[in-house]
Every structure is written in C-alpha cells, then in structure tokens.
Specification:
Layout lengths: L11 E3 L2 E4 L22 H16 L8 H16 L9 H16 L9 H16 L3 H8 L9 H27 L8 H11 L10 H32 L1 H14 L15 H14 L8 E2 L4 E3 L2 E3 L4 E4 L1 H5 L42 H18 E4 L12 E2 L3 E2 L6 E4 L1
Antiparallel strand pairs: 1-2, 2-6, 3-6, 4-5, 7-10, 8-9
Enzyme class: oxidoreductase
GO molecular function: heme binding; iron ion binding; long-chain fatty acid omega-hydroxylase activity; steroid hydroxylase activity
Family: Belongs to the cytochrome P450 family.
Amino acid sequence: MYCFSLFWLLGCSLSNYFFLKTEHFGFRLSLSLPGVIFAPYGPVWKQQRKFSLSTLRHFGVGRHSLEPKIIEELKFIKEEMLKHGKDSFNPFPIIRNAVSNVICSMALGRRFNYEDVEFKTMLKNMARALELSVNSYMILVNICPWLYYLPFGPFRELRKTELDITTFLKKIIAQHRDTLDAANPRDFIDMYFIHAEEEKNNKESSFNEDYLFFIIGDLFIAGTDTTSNTLLWCLLYMSLYPEVQEKVHAEIEAVLGRDKVPSLTHKAQMPFTEATIMEVQRMTAVVPLSIPRMASETAVLQGYTIPKGSVIVPNLWSVHRDPNIWEKPDEFQPSRFLDENGQLIKKEAFIPFGMGKRVCMGEQLAKMELFLIFASLMQSFTFLYPENAAKPSMEGRFGLTLAPCPFNIIALKR
C-alpha cells in the first residue's frame, strides 16, 4: 500500500539529509517492498532493475526512436487546449493523461482516450492516493497497521483508491497473458512474461506475474505523477513570469519558428528553454525527499552516528534551496544555469532525479518528455494566468510528490 512512505515523516534532520532508526516507537521499518523503486538492494532488485532498464531502452527510452510517440501525444494535448479558446481551464487532467499515455504505450501497449472515464478515474485515484499517503492520520498506520482497515475517513478512501488501481492494472496484465504472442512482443508486459518463461527453471529467478504487477505499478505511477507535476509547475511559472516566457518564446522562434517540430536534436540550440525547465525542477523539487536508502554499515556523518540498518532519506528540497550553493535560492532565475555566453551550465548540486544506484530509472524518459512537451507547448501557446483569479500557493501540495495547488490557466494560440 502507498502508506509505506510514511516513515519519511518520522525522520529527524541531519544537515541536508534525514535518517531514521528502524527500531523507533517499538516497531521496525523495512524497505522489503516489491518493485524496483523501494525494493531492498540485493539480487532481486538487481535482476528486476536490469531487466526494466534494458526493456525500456528496447522501446525507445533515451533514443530518438521514442520521439514520434511523444510528438503524437502532443497533437491531442493541443487539441484539448484549443477547445477552450480564450477561456481559462484546468490543465491537470490534460497533462496527466498525456504523460501517462507515453509510459502506457510502452508498458501497457496502448494509449487511452482523454475521455476514457475509467482511465481518468485511475489518474485521479493515483493523485489522491499519493496525497493521502502523507496525511497525518496515515502516520498512525505504520504504528498501528490495523487502523488501515477502519471503515471511515482517509483509511477507507485510501483502501478504495488502491483497490481500483489494483483492479485496473491486473485486468490489463491478465489480458496480456491471455493474448501473448511470444514471437511478437507488444510492450513491457509481454517482454516480462517472455522473460519469466525463459527463467522458469532458474531457482534464483524472481520473475513472476505477482512481481510484474508491482513493476507495472511503479512504472505507471512514477512515470505519470512526477513528469506531469513538473510540466504543470512549468505552465504555472510561465503564466506568473511573463518576462521569462517571452525569452523562451524568442529562443523557440529563432530555432524552430512556428512550424518546425521540436526534436531532441534542437536541445543544444535552446539553452534558455532548457535552463527554464531546470530552474522549475530546482524550485519545485517534485520528489522533495527522494528515494529512501538504508545504511549497509554503521557510519559517522558530520558527527552524527548512523547505525547500520537506518533508513536514510536524501532531502533534495534542502539541497536545491541551500543558500550556500545557490544565490538567492528562493527566486526564480533560469539564468543561474547559463554562463556569460548564454550556454548551459551543469551544476553538481542539481540532482532532481537523485543519484547513485537508486537514481530515477525513468530519468531519460522524463528529460525527453519535459523538453519535447514544454518546447512544443511554448511554440504553440502563450500561457496567461486569469486576471481575477487568486494566485495559488507556490508551496504546492505535498504527497509522495510535490504537486501544484489547483489552478486554471489561459492558453492563447500563437
């Protein structure tokens, strides 16, 4: 269940990191969760992550061959936005549908229509479950697990959303199992079934249908929520900082004009556009507490003893807002990522995808989506914040990820 991440809130501060002794409060926290994001480091994690990375690359992640799928999805985004004319609208469902469709096309072998009621419900459930998972009531679930089964309030709501998402994903997996053609794999699920069959006589193998469910859940949720929230933050910042939006428009005009389709090959020619995306990522830190790690040995860091087995949670928000690293860290300044010649600067402290062995598995896919979708939308629209609408809090809504507070926006065709 999603409340596994609640131990984040029980941690204590350590410079730019959090750590948690697993024996606190008379219970023991564990990272022994299936999947590839929160699974414990070891042979199973290595097997599953290696397979997942190679299969995603097979379907185009990190390669130009994936561009057409993203570009194709952009047509639907623009069509949806154009329907609103000069009226304000809620961009959340449009962006979430689009981003989710990219990962769904690789993992599930299909995209979903923006009016698909079941799919829209799943995306709403996912966003709500991530938000509920850090609800103060849910902290109690890690202390008293039986509270999870209470028939009221957030406990009941979380169970319902989890059940709906589980039913949705397991139905798709079952359909794949029943229609599998090993000679013509369609997507990640097919490739997993084929590999599991190849490994069935290997006693050390961890590949089975139960584990597949957790892997697909990781891909579906992480592949949708993080990138869609980043893009929503981008649109919000552009509408609130028109002077930055004008500079992005000018660069796109110079490199792409109005008709050339954005490509990853244009990235090097568009440093200000890239710097703007990076500054949004720095300001918002969509995964502010990153992925938890566990100390394999007792260690001392800056005078603090971290016992073996302690859960350690890197605080990316603190790193990205550290005044010792960033000048005026609370100000939105894309130029901080550019040198005196206007070329992009890579900064060691900029780590929105984490680092090390647990670095985000979808980093390359996310970078592709962020650049292509953001550049294409900025090429086609000028985004305005409604004049009479109250500005949303820029602190966002904290769940397992940091989502923008609800807002409406105006997309004027350029």
